[in-house]
Specification:
The structure holds two protein chains of two kinds. Chain A is of the alpha+beta class. Chain A has helices at about 5-15, 55-65, 100-110, 115-135, 190, 200-215, 230-235, 245-250, 255-260, 270-280, and strands at about 20-25, 30-35, 45-50, 75-85, 85-95, 135, 145-150, 155, 165. Chain A has ten helices and nine strands. In chain A, about 40% of the residues lie in helices and about 15% in strands. The radius of gyration of chain A is 19 Å and the shape is globular. In chain B, helix 3 packs across helix 4, helix 4 packs parallel to helix 5 and helix 12 runs antiparallel to helix 13. Chain B is an alpha/beta fold. The longest helix of chain B has 20 residues, at about 310-330. In chain B, helix 6 (about 195-210) links the parallel strand 6 (about 175-180) and strand 7. Chain B starts with a strand and ends with a helix. The chains are: A alpha+beta, B alpha/beta.
Chain lengths: ~290, ~375
């Protein structure tokens, strides 16, 4: 079934459950997200999955979202299935975050200042620490999966579609050359499907890349003129990071990003609280613009 | 930054020797002592402020019924039939180790670990799972967990292996690591391949950089390398002037003669037999550290006054004094390790030029060049 037809399913779900469909706000390979308004006027996000899409992964996603309760993580309100034209569709209703994605924020308003980067980073680190405290690894942190609240500054992490529960058996086959995730923001251990080395520090790496891209406009491993695919290869091979990255973090006082984006997990911050403490220290007056 | 005394057979008197007071802690062994004896040792050490008492359950080779280990209450009775790869089996062992420690009262306990056939990622994850379980079980007891890591030194020669191992080990909930570097290098031989040494140093450096202080267990003169890499502490025992941690140490002891006394000489970074000690002394190559070693002075006096008199016990003490002393000097930045190695290599060349041959065929300082390479290349990495 073509993803476009999910619009009809979404309309039918809205009719059956008393929602008003406002607009499509995003789509992935296996699901589509819509802004809807409930009968009490609250704006929410309706996410409809293609039938048969990896039930195990969807179950993990829902379990993860249910376990997480944090102001910078999207809240799950309701999960159910909907029969339509002989198929059964899984759908969920979650908090609607109206400020758009970090990607669109960067596109429309340009790069973050060091102060904005520091504030955004602190909130995202707190959210990642919360995710890690549940033994979870998000594995798909990227600007598209960071929504902004109405103030345009408060980030909310969404889309736990490929979340890894460290207490459960991995759903990624060991023979796969590359693990799931968006390659440009993925850690080397994800890119190489090195399961033994994947834990919350993979999210730490992605977060470091997101902040770097948001503040400096380039990936830590990105040489001037290199393509995204070339950057991904450099990360996967754990090559040296770009000199301009080191210069940028030195100039702005964000040297902490060097450790966050180190090629091996052992070289990154060991505990979320150590990362949070170091991040707070980098916000102290006198450390660049931050 | 400290030296630990790895307790061996009949070593309790060394714990209280006033001239060995530089030791900051002891690694207590179940192999040579009964449970009540160790409880007594710990009780006797409680009066020493800041002295760290660490219990090592010594289950590296669970089926080896060495010494008094089988008499301990945590020693698994089903060791011959158990699936030692099963976490549930280890959970039972951990529970009993915790009960034992609650009785004997050490400050810290190393997580139980076994020597695997292959040192795979899975094996290191297993070690960390055991360590994390121990950490949970020790909560509220006042006893601190230490993560035991058993690594095969030759494996660490492979590019990035140290970082791979460290990436798993740094998942531990414990706040310290007890690192055992296993090597096939036979006792009385020094490590002489720089690549595994560099790997060992890189592992130590990475763990320390990740805020995981490392105690390198079963060290000897290699303490120089591990301290250079940044190890917070190194442990040794009276026998580690002769032995090292190998799989063969769990074999049945072979029949053999008595031990020979050895002298650690800092000017050569080598262990010397009595006749070699006399040769080195005659060539005026004794180091200031040896001159200042109170046990060294006693040995020399004994040799002068009653040639041929035994000095095995003094030899152990001379080594243990040197170990704690050099550990402290390196920690304090009072020693340039590279310069120490360079001087030792030069001194061996002087002996060769003077046509002085040591009694032991391979005791010729040949390991110093690989050590220097390991050191320099580690520093440049």
């Amino acid at each position: 079934m073509h993803p476009a037809s999910l619009q009809h399913v979404a309309s039918s779900i809205c009719n059956a459950h008393g929602y008003r469909l406002v607009q499509s706000v995003g789509s992935g390979s296996f699901k589509e997200t819509y802004e809807v308004v409930s009968s009490d006027g609250a704006h929410q996000a309706l996410k409809v999955f293609q039938p048969g899409f990896s039930p195990a992964r969807t179950k993990r996603e829902l379990e993860a979202m249910t376990r997480c309760e944090h102001p910078n993580i999207g809240k799950l309100s309701y999960v159910s299935t909907f029969p339509w034209q002989g198929q059964t569709y899984l759908f969920l209703v979650e908090e609607f975050v109206p400020g758009g994605t970090l990607t669109s924020r960067l596109r429309t308003q340009g790069l973050l200042s060091p102060t904005e980067g520091a504030v955004l980073g602190a909130q995202l680190i707190d959210a990642v620490a919360h995710i890690a405290s549940h033994g979870l690894v998000h594995r798909d942190l990227k600007p598209d999966n960071i929504l902004l609240r109405a103030d345009g500054a408060t980030p909310v992490i969404v889309d736990f579609g490929i979340v890894r529960d460290l207490a459960e058996v991995s759903l990624t086959p060991t023979w796969s050359l590359r693990g799931p995730g968006t390659p440009f923001f993925s850690s080397p251990e994800q890119l190489n499907n090195e399961k033994a080395y994947i834990d919350w520090r993979a999210d730490q790496f992605s977060l470091g890349v997101i902040i770097c891209v948001s503040m400096f406009g380039f990936h830590p491993f990105e040489q001037p003129g290199s393509t995204p695919d070339e950057v991904v290869e450099l990360v996967a091979e754990r090559r040296t990071r770009a000199e301009r990255f080191h210069a940028a973090v030195r100039d702005t006082g964000f040297v902490i990003l060097e450790r966050m984006t180190a090629p091996w997990p052992a070289q990154r911050f060991r505990h979320p609280h150590l990362l949070a403490e170091a991040w707070c220290a980098s916000l102290q007056p006198g450390t660049g613009d931050a | 930054m400290s030296a630990y005394h790895q307790m061996g057979h009949l070593a309790q008197n060394l714990l209280h020797d006033p001239d060995l007071g530089l030791y900051a802690g002891a690694i207590l062994s179940p192999v040579n002592y009964e449970e009540e004896e160790v409880a007594g040792q710990i009780a006797g050490l409680k009066a020493r402020e800041q002295f760290d008492t660490v219990f090592d359950p010594q289950l590296y080779c669970p089926k080896a019924t060495r010494g008094k280990l089988p008499n301990w209450s945590y020693y698994p009775s089903d060791v011959d039939t158990a699936d030692v790869a099963s976490m549930s089996w280890w959970y039972q062992v951990i529970d009993r180790v915790v009960e034992t420690c609650a009785h004997i009262g050490p400050r810290a306990v190393c997580s139980p670990a076994m020597l695997p056939n292959a040192f795979t990622d899975q094996c290191f994850s297993h070690l960390v799972d055991i360590g994390n379980r121990l950490s949970r079980c020790l909560e509220g007891t006042g006893i601190l967990p230490i993560q035991t890591v058993v690594a095969h030194l030759p494996d660490l020669a492979a590019p990035d292996r140290a970082l791979q191992v460290a990436s798993i080990v740094t998942r531990t909930a414990a706040e310290r690591v007890y690192l055992i570097l296993v090597s096939p290098t036979e006792p009385r031989r020094e490590f002489d391949d720089p690549e595994p040494l560099k790997g060992g140093m890189r592992l130590i450096r990475t763990l320390e950089d990740a805020n995981l202080p490392v105690i390198v267990a079963f060290s000897s003169s290699d303490v120089l390398l591990w301290k250079f890499a940044g190890a917070s502490a190194c442990a040794t025992g009276k026998y580690f002037n002769l032995r090292r941690f190998t799989k063969s140490r769990f074999d049945e002891p072979a029949e053999g003669g008595g031990q020979l006394p050895y002298w650690i000489e800092e000017s050569l970074l080598a262990f010397l037999r009595e006749s070699d000690l006399i040769r080195v002394r005659n060539h005026e190559l004794m180091s200031p550290a040896s001159d200042a070693n109170p046990f060294g002075q006693q040995i020399l006096s004994k040799l002068d006054e009653t040639p041929g008199a035994p000095w095995l016990g003094l030899g152990w003490r001379q080594f243990m004094y040197w170990f704690a002393d050099i550990e402290q000097r390196i920690s304090a930045g009072a020693v340039d390790v590279e310069a120490l190695l360079r001087t030792a290599e030069t001194n061996w060349l002087r002996l060769e030029d003077a046509k002085v041959l040591m009694e032991e065929p391979r005791n010729d300082g040949r390991w110093l060049r690989p050590w220097r390479r390991a050191l320099l290349e580690h520093a440049q990495a």
